[in-house]
Design goal:
Rossmann fold; 2 domains; 6-stranded mixed sheet; 40% helix; globular; binds pyridoxal-5'-phosphate
């Protein structure tokens, strides 16, 4: 009896943690608005794309709970979101996670309920993409029926931000009724959050200027990538969803600048944000000096900083 009660309570908690929640929008310095996506279940904005992809796939029959296993390659944040989103439907998740990502993240993914696949292949030098490919090719003999979420090609990645995050920010902006213009400072991995949010805010009637932030040495538009440590942004492929006509300016930041911003923001605000958040904050906070009552700077805190403390 006691065991049953504990079990029921645990399931209820999972259902609650998978609800759509509004993350805070805070004016962290005069003129600078930050969307705290790090406060999502799963710890980042990626839960939104994951939830949207899974929900659409269940609705159109690509995922059949009880039959389908979801498979993806991920560095972490999308994997947390995916595992959480699938748990709501009782759908198992298998993830190929590159060995370069933190061991803590890998352990936590398992703790959330994901099965990490292809360790032996990764140790022999295969890429996570090759691990996924191998599993897709051998699904019958391994008694699986896979659905590959393919976040870099799945249009539901953008829809999540166009129809959820963006409108949520627009509704929250009503607390600043004088605002008409926004400078949106963002980075891009897939580019889904940048495009989805920019589109939704434009549709809501704001005049939106987009500033793309990249690590020094990267030029995503031309497929040039340095070996940087800002996990999640400028990830080695041209962001598939970016519409370059929407980008007004590109600013680069050095690793040292990002670490300094992260440290000083933690000391002054108490929030230890992730590296991509700190990269955007570096640029956004300097732009905020020119903000006015009708023109604010907007950026996103994508995830928390604890993952990246070494
Ligand atoms: C920490 C972090 N920041 C930024 C991004 C970029 O987000 P998007 O894929 O929406 O461009 C990601 C993507 O995985 C991320 O994990």
């Amino acid at each position: 009896m006691t065991v049953n009660l504990v079990h029921t309570r645990a399931n209820a908690d999972i259902a609650i943690s998978n609800d759509v929640r509004v993350t805070p929008l805070r004016e962290i310095q005069p003129g600078l608005l930050l969307k705290f996506e790090c406060d999502n279940p799963g710890g980042s904005h990626k839960v939104r794309a994951a939830r949207y992809i899974v929900r659409s796939a269940v609705e159109n029959g690509d995922i059949v709970p009880g039959q389908t296993t979801v498979i993806e390659k991920t560095g972490g944040n999308f994997g947390f979101g995916l595992t959480l989103a699938c748990q709501a439907y009782g759908v198992p998740v298998e993830l190929a996670v590159g060995l370069g990502f933190s061991a803590v993240k890998r352990r936590c993914l398992e703790l959330y309920g994901a099965r990490l696949i292809g360790l032996d292949m990764l140790e022999r030098g295969a890429t996570p993409r090759e691990v996924v490919q191998w599993h897709l090719e051998h699904e019958a003999e391994n008694e699986r029926s896979y659905f590959y979420t393919d976040q870099f090609r799945n249009p539901a990645s953008v829809a999540a931000h166009e129809f959820e995050t963006g409108p949520e920010i627009a509704a929250q902006l009503k607390a600043w009724p004088l605002v008409e213009r926004l400078t949106f400072v963002s980075c891009a991995g897939t580019g889904a959050s940048l495009i989805g949010i920019a589109k939704a805010l434009t549709l809501a009637g704001y005049s939106v200027t987009v500033v793309l932030v990249e690590p020094k040495g990267c030029d995503s538009r031309n497929g040039i990538f340095s070996d940087h440590k800002l996990e999640g942004m400028s990830v080695g492929v041209v962001p598939p969803f970016l519409d370059w006509d929407l980008i007004s300016e590109i600013r680069t930041v050095s690793h040292d600048e990002v670490l300094n911003t992260r440290k000083s923001f933690a000391r002054t605000s108490g929030f230890l944000v992730g590296n991509t958040a700190a990269a955007c904050l570096t640029v956004a906070s300097s732009l905020a000096r020119d903000a006015t009552a009708d023109h604010k700077i907007l950026s996103v805190f994508y995830d928390h900083g604890l993952w990246y403390v070494r």
